Amino acid sequence: MSRRPKILEGERRRALAVLVTLSFGQAGAMVATAFATRDVFVFLRERGEAMPVGALAVIAASGLALFACRALEGRVGERAGQSYAAAIRRTLFLHVSRMPVSAVARRRSGALALRYVGDLAAFKGWIARGLSRLISAAVTIPAALVVLYLLEPWLLVAAIGPLGAVMAGILLLSSSLGEAHSDLRSRRARLAAAMAERLPQGIQLRRSGRLRTELRALKGWSGDVAEAGVRRESLSATVRALPDAGAGLAGALCLGTCMHLGLGIPEAVAALTALTLIVWPLRQLADVADRRRAFLVASAKLDRLLQTPRMPATRIEAGTQDAPAIELEAAGLPGGGRIDLILQRGECRRLAGPSGSGKSALLLALAGFDRRVEARRFAVLGQTPEALAPGEVLYLGRQAPGLAGSLRREVTLGIGRMPDDTEIEAAVESAGLGPMVSRISGLGGKISEGRRNLTASEQAGLLLARALLARPKLALVDADEIGLGRQALGRLLDHLASVGAASLVVTSDAEAILRLGPPVLLHAPKPRASSVSSDS
């Protein structure tokens, strides 16, 4: 079952009812225009004395009614489309916010961002322009055919063949159009992902001698996108042009029928008026086919993303007061072994082990950022990690959250409290960030995306300042990974001890090793057995 929001929910259901009403209004105006036009030409043929003011008024009023209905249709459709796009954004963000960091890391950031841009345009376009026009065409096209029948049944017989062929052509080409949409989106996603990776490293790639290589690759990717785009647009333009060909052929057949049956000029003009009014919804129907295929392709991609693994849903609760900070029983490790650990409240231990033993992965799982490892017991403060309230566990590592914005927000992100500026300034100064604060013009100064406007030591200092402002019950610190030096790490451990927080720290600093005592040791992963074949 798809996790996508339902199209007909809340205000969108009401919008659909309005669109149906507007479609019937357009159909009524079209019928009135055709018959009023006939009456006017009857007057012109017979040269009557009384001018058909009523018919002229109907033609004018019908034109205004069509104008109002189509303008309002666009407004209502756009509002419904924006509502659906907002619902998709919310659903997508909620899903990604529950994806383990390891699952997010396997996806390219450019491709993930495309779900928020290119695919949302397809969703909005289907609701705002596709579904609304489908409703309009479903009402107005039959109404125009009814006009032909009322004028002369044989006129309907003459027109139905070409118009039916147009609709059949739209349906037949829509399959190829869907494949073209899928191909274009796949190539565009690859280009977006590649450029999202390369653009932030532009000068580095140039200085590494990669400029010509990257330009050749960009030319190739752009050519692939252009080729797919031309194919899609060619099919789309063909579909949109079919109504003009059908209307021309139907018009010729209707005029021939009028001459064959000896119908008068008023009936012929009324028939042509009805056909002219059919062309507009037929063109809309062609555009509907294009947008429908784009919607189906985007839906399939979004459904696949929404089916990716998520962290289990839990209710946020405070940690159990008398429970240990960490309880691990027979917890699986990448090395193939298992670990038992009980870390009491206020206790500080070092997490040690060779590269690849799973130190960082264990910290992420304990922080609730990644899936829990297989274990008979895996608890943090007596709860599952993802159920704990913000601020109870402090994680300092490569995956610590960060957002572009003010320094004030960055140092208080995720600590579960909002200190005043005086306290923030003191923490920032204690973390050795005084010169940085001056450079970016105070706590309101901007930290760029990925903290790219900070040096490596400033980034480490920012996380230290965040820790100094926090009052966690448990701290999980990957000190080597974030580059905390001896003094910074000593200051952090002093703060954690002063607030009574338990801590599990990954560090190779000799002084910290002595201070933290016997380590929690993880073992190296076992090498995979290789099969060696021998000739007998």
TrEMBL record:
The chain crosses the membrane at residues 52-72, 134-151, 157-178, 268-286. The keyword Phosphoprotein does not apply. Keywords: Membrane, Transmembrane, Transmembrane helix. GO terms for molecular function: ABC-type transporter activity; ATP binding; ATP hydrolysis activity; ATPase-coupled lipid transmembrane transporter activity. Gene3D superfamilies: ABC transporter type 1, transmembrane domain (1.20.1560.10), P-loop containing nucleotide triphosphate hydrolases (3.40.50.300). It is found in: Cell membrane. InterPro entries: ABC1_TM_dom (IPR011527), ABC1_TM_sf (IPR036640), ABC_transporter-like_ATP-bd (IPR003439), P-loop_NTPase (IPR027417), Type_1_exporter (IPR039421). Signal peptide: none annotated. Residues 17-294 form the ABC transmembrane type-1 domain. The keyword GTP-binding does not apply. It is a multi-pass membrane protein. This is ABC transmembrane type-1 domain-containing protein. It comes from Rhodosalinus halophilus.
